[in-house]
Amino acid sequence: MSALLSIRDLSVRFASPGSTAMDAVLRHLSLDLDRGEIVALVGASGAGKSLLAHAILGLLPPGAVVCGEVRFEGQALGPDTLPTLRGRRIALLPQSVTHLDPLMPVGRQVALAARRAGAPDPGADGFRRFGLDPAVRRAHPHELSGGMARRVLALASLAGAPDLVVADEPTDHLDPDSAAVVLAALAEVARRGGAVLLVTHDLPAALPFAHRVALMRGSRIEAVEPAAGFLGAGEGIASAYGRKLWQALPQNGFLTDA
Ligand SMILES: Nc1ncnc2c1ncn2[C@@H]1O[C@H](COP(=O)(O)OP(=O)(O)OP(=O)(O)O)[C@@H](O)[C@H]1O
Ligand code: NI
């Protein structure tokens, strides 16, 4: 059976300011996501994680030059196919809460996200599931804390029961309990046969949920490792880069002196 999402030799370039040269911000990336799978995409700030997330959804800024191919259920994703899939079968949970409409009560935004996908409005129960008081539905985004807004974004992006969720730092600025709620909701997507690309700085927090870990460095995917390899001193991690990253984590720091 073919992968739910298949990225093949994807490169993205931008014109560099004041020159005719193009800067590659993603270089020859290939990655598959199967149904039922959560793949964590981990890498330093600026590695290109958000660009990859946006490239999958066809949401790169104008001027981006894209080569390579992204397929969903074998169908090439592009201007012909993405508008009908985005927000329905494929959802982005964006890194920035500025994606919420500042002028609309958040309950209405969640209801519209659901309706767009032909799904029922999650309503008060949806807000409760994400640890939010149902009264929050009447609030506008500026009345919410950063953590509340992130949970509303998560609720809105999952409201349409998408098959594929690209979640860009979904637990940023969340307390551990709220982060666990959001990660559990993403795990549910995979459990019912979808797939999740979980972009994160926080490898340890992602590990209990992820099946594989794609390590990004300097516009490339350096290695893809089974999540189960990230334990102990990292003997189970095949790539040198993965081992180094694992051993450099504060909680594993004692191992780097060994
Ligand atoms: N519109 C753009 N034009 C030119 N370069 C861009 C553009 N958007 C992003 N970049 C560059 O692409 C690189 C990757 O950015 P990206 O936001 O994907 O990083 P990231 O891995 O998501 O980082 P973070 O962890 O901080 O969110 C950066 O060096 C950035 O400067
Ligand atoms: Ni990012």
TrEMBL record:
The keyword Transcription does not apply. It is a peripheral membrane protein. InterPro entries: AAA+_ATPase, ABC_Ni/Peptide_Import, ABC_transporter-like_ATP-bd, P-loop_NTPase. Its EC number is 7.2.2.11. Keywords: ATP-binding, Cell membrane, Ion transport, Membrane, Nucleotide-binding, Translocase, Transport. It is found in: Cell inner membrane. Pfam families: ABC_tran. GO terms for cellular component: plasma membrane. The keyword Signal does not apply. One of its GO terms (molecular function) is ATP hydrolysis activity. It catalyses: Ni(2+)(out) + ATP + H2O = Ni(2+)(in) + ADP + phosphate + H(+). The complex is composed of two ATP-binding proteins (NikD and NikE), two transmembrane proteins (NikB and NikC) and a solute-binding protein (NikA). Belongs to the ABC transporter superfamily. This is Nickel import system ATP-binding protein NikD.
